[in-house]
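Fold sample X.
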Amino acid sequence: MAIATNLGFPRMGANRELKRLLERYWQGKIGAEALNEGAAEVRATNWQWQAEAGITQVPVGDFSLYDHVLDWAIRVGAVPAAYRTAKLVSHLDRYFAMARGSQQGVDLPAMEMTKWFNTNYHYIVPEWSTDQEFHLDAESFLKQVIAAQQISADARPVVLGPVSLLLLGKLKGSNESPLVLLDRLLPVYEGLLQQLSEAGCTWVQWDEPVLALDLDDEAKQALRHSLNVLSGSFGKSQLVLTSYFESLRENLPLAFELPVAAVHLDLVCGPEQLREALQHVREDQFLSLGLVDGRNVWRTNLTKAIALAESAAAAIGSERLFIAASCSLLHSPVDLATETEIDNEVKSWLAFARQKLDEIATITKAINNGPDSVAPALQQNAAAIESRRSSIRTHNPAVRDRVAAVSPESLRRQSNYEKRQSRQRDRLKLPLFPTTTIGSFPQTGAVRQARAAFRKGELSAEEYRQFLQSETEVCIRRQESLGLDVLVHGEFERNDMVEYFGEQLEGFAVSKNGWVQSYGSRCVKPPIIFGDVDRLTPMTVPMAAYAQSLTDRPVKGMLTGPVTILCWSFVRDDQPRQETCQQVALAIREEAIDLERAGIGVIQIDEPALREGLPLRKFDQPGYLAWAVDAFRLASSGVKDETQIHTHMCYCEFNEILPSIAALDADVISIETSRSQMELLEGFVEFRYPNEIGPGVYDIHSPRVPSSREMVGLLSKAVDVIPARRLWVNPDCGLKTRGWPEVEAALSAMVEAAQEVRSLLA
């Protein structure tokens, strides 16, 4: 009999219970005991839901209080020396100091954070040292396994494999690969496997997501070596090797060669790999079929999924099949049943995490008992698939005509950068090292309450407008008082930098509870692109123009770029992503032109997801970069030379795509660099970035307020690489999630640092 499995489940809870617990703990409103008890309740609910849906092997260990990569760094004893201070008396203090910075009065920076492969989930980058020692610290993990077994007897521990763990981190003070530490690390995994076997675990999920990447010979040999060494420690447990987000491609023979009892295939990203897999699977191996999309919200075409599973069953027998989602459901909202704001037609096309569990169970039952055993579910599914395919709401001929009319001239500014720079400097008259912020300012309780009251009809449109204008004026005055050179309006009308635009553009649906974890307690609610995208009316012009009317200093118009709107939405899968991105770009282009007409001289079009959207395999990257760059240029090139275009990027490894970033031809780019101590700027030593750049000088994801002296140090590193005349001074990212006291303190230090560096170079 085929077995229904799952690779992971959302952590936050249906109503973001974990988010609220974490934030109350950080605020000192609850203690560690209450946090741990509440987290255990969320975990148990997740297990119960999966078991009730028919998942036989419920995953355990996919849950985390902040980030699973950080969890595994700690489980193998890899706590950097700075965080081993006795002043951090509790495990939680140390954990959150590594994730967020200073805890309990101990002044420490947070560890570096970056994107999890090509998703918007952020993980904490482990820090390895050349004298690294490892030890097993998995007591809490094993307790979770035992607890899960009370709900699901065959609960499946989820382990981040040693090769991926090492490669996801950075070896400090050395140019060697972190894999030089592998033999030191393997005894820790050996001990863990022995304990899991003793706990009665029949199967262990062995995540090695690096198999989705282009691997060099060293990495391939490390995978062979690690599992060969560990094979004697499996005991009663069998390993299912899991990778996701891409086809295995040339790594497929390697995966089946390894001493594992099962191999997982992401058949959503690569259905074509099943044919080759059936040629490589050993007679003693299982296949795990990732048939349900773990990263998007569209219903699975069950007829097609069952056909794929049937072909596998015909080749190796259903008794050797696991039926699963393509990847962890971490990247999906929890439950469609709670949605009240999506209209019924679009809602009928969707499946959130709990509905995806039902899909897994349905496919499994169809394989085990025949399609007739699930005939009603198949009929309902087929009707929904056909409804979406034939709906007139998904196609807008006028939009498609505008995309077809895009010409090469639409992708170019009027003049080259040197001419634009001269005109912009004449217009803006900014000092050396101009200071600015990335866009958003604190979303206080009052702001959130007013937005909620407006949505409930408790505030009229006029009352809400007056409230927003009042908040905007206060924000402008605060920035003037701090001495910032280029101001922003604060974005108090925006719940999120992508969802806000999704609410106003045609072709989007917005959920009420479709939350997805981005990092820590931070959740986003991606809008759903179901149809052709069109802008019916200006979206940001009124608030930007009002803010500019309040001050003589330039105010930036704030837009989200087309690639980021694409990547941070649940995107339609019935046409190429490039086509959808072009449609979004045209809408943003129209908005930028309207901002310019309203007197806005600086327009920021954020593209933090440019690197995130990069395909995992090098072969696929040039094509993506070409259309992604064109989309930004289409969005930004409709304005005049004297209008300065900014863009912003953060929390990714950008050095490998610097030529494409330069090809955007933004006048100014701001990037996150503080957590890595300006490490990103090393790429500028070899690649001469032609335009202006604002490397972030403090980390906004931490409550810690750095000193001006620290920021001067970072700016000094930047000056060593970038000519001073082309440098800006700004935080790493927007300030929405922070509080006003820390924001004002940090920005005050930032302005002071800029002034000091100006004086040193005057």
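Fold sample Y, listed below.
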Amino acid sequence: MNAPIAHLYYISVGVLLMAAFHAALLARSSAYTRAYWAFATICLSFSLFQFFCAAQYVAIDPQAAMSAHKWVNFFSILIVALIAYLVASIENKPSSFMVAYGVAGLAALVIVANFLNPLGYRFDSLQQDGFTVFPWGEQINIFSGEQSVVYRLMRLLSLAVLVYTIVFSVRIRKLGGRLANRLIWISIVLMLVTASFAGLSDSGALKMPYLGGFGFLFLVAGFSVLVRADVSNRKIEEIRINEALEREVKSHKIANQRFEHALHNDPLTGLPNRAGALIRLNNLIDINKLNQTKLAVFLFDIDQLGIINGTRGHKTGDQLLREVSQRLQNNLRDSDLIARLDSGGFVIGASGLKGESCEALLHEKLSSALEPPFDVAGSVLKMTFSAGVAVFPDDAGMAEDILAAVELALHDAKSSGPGNLRVFHPSLKESIQSRIDFESALKEALEKKQFFLCYQPQVLASDGRTVCLEALIRWQHPTYGLVMPDRFIQLAESMGLIALIGAWVIDSACEQLARWRAMGFEEVRVAVNLSAQQLLDPDLEETVTRALERSSLSGSDLELEITESVLMQDPERSIERLSALRKLGVRLSIDDFGTGYSSLGYLRVLPVHAFKLDRSFVRDIGNGGKDLEICATSIGLAKNLGLEIVAEGVETEAQMQQLRTLGCHLLQGYFFAKPLIVEAASHFLTSCSHKVLMPPEEMQMTLGLAR
């Protein structure tokens, strides 16, 4: 088609679109963000103006040409408002923006009139000769006719905006340099000329297309050169100022500032460290003295942070510390103190407290903030936090004494297990000293061979044969007497001793099983409980392998029991560790089944052989009700999954009878035997080795011998 004019318009559309894209890119990193976005929008509007001009000129019928003409009008009106906003954005004054918003309001009214009028806003009536033929044969649709009042007013508004732009250009002519000024003035002259031609074309005096878009192409170049020059000048000025400041600042002052910051702040979280916390605490003490209010100081500590660092690396531990820091900061006032002490400890100081319940409310608030799981390094970790609290002036009057008090309270909280809160009391000092002595004794217990194992049988519900003995650790101390595991296992975990103690238990249990095998008990295996730290210990597989090899046992001779709540702390990691253990051939079981959470969701993917039904469900099974339903459901679930189930805490014949009826595989409890020392366990195996399936009365008489 012979349409060179239409082709020129389409080419200009592409050029203007590229200019809009370029301005949008510059807007992301420029100090003139709004100005660049405004200029990008103007370029886009002019490209659409050119596009619809071409659509009007090549339209095949008058109706299509008029439809395109209305869009030409729309973008010509929009451009006027955008130019006013562009100037306001560069000038950045409230008065300039008021002018721009006023122009936008008038333009909006004209746009409405444009689309409501069948001929657009330019004409009240049209001349009949709509087509214009140029000498080279190109025929285009050009409208002319009686100009409307709205159009005449809009032309005056456009002229006012152009004058406003000229005045602004005069004021900033020094910013762009000679080349930029020339381009801007050439563009303004071209737009004035093209605007005049547009008016003559609309009146019918001239038959020519709108040329405003081509005039704007020069403004594109002028604007780019102007802003680039301005940015360059600003950078040069900033460099000059920075260099002057650097010369004036003495080097030793900078060094002192860095030293002070490093001395009082934690480099990982950016929070104050212990030294910085003491400074802030002293300030808060002075404020609360003046206001006669209380200052509550908390010390939160991440339980088992050492396990995270050991199993997932310090990078993961550092990320966890940063997220904990952020959550705490988000739930504190600006006037409150937050600092990081050693390892996973965070000090919180909240001043201005008046009621006794304020400490509890603040602890509840912070605990709720820390309760949701942490998404760290691609893993979801559910952490627990121990906390201690001390109050000024009730518990101490100086910053150092308050920190000491709150650390004692935290130590007491952690000794009771993870996730506890303790309030400082003066009696804690004596209690802590006793606990320190207890810890010292625990450190020496393994070396002095004060630990020993007891064994509690697990019998087949079908015929009463003993197939497994669960190894249970005990501590016999010359001063403390017989110490049960619930007093020292958690303490051993917090002290980092559990791996050594656990390795001793596995090795000792395997040695004893080898002795029983030598006595002829070929079908018996031993079960050992694993703590949370043991399960996540990367050396656990090597520990188990060495113990089995030393005792000449196979993997199936050893069963490892893992508490369900431990598995649910980090299910993905637990599955990974259990799979590694299963490759060794050892049996795996879930202890205290039903007391954790989400257990059924993970049970189908956990690589275990059995689970132990918690004694809390077995206790009232003889009375029917919910406990009976839970036991029946659990046993049925185990059968469907091809797993064995062990009922713990069987203490009566009624419980045994009911569990046998339900189809439970193994039974364990005082009804058969309490935990037995080695000699008693050997006697138990000898006395029961010849028994087979028998009536319940006779079975009770036989299995009750060791009670």
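Sample Y note: The longest helix spans residues 212-248.
Also: The first strand starts at residue 123 and ends at 126.
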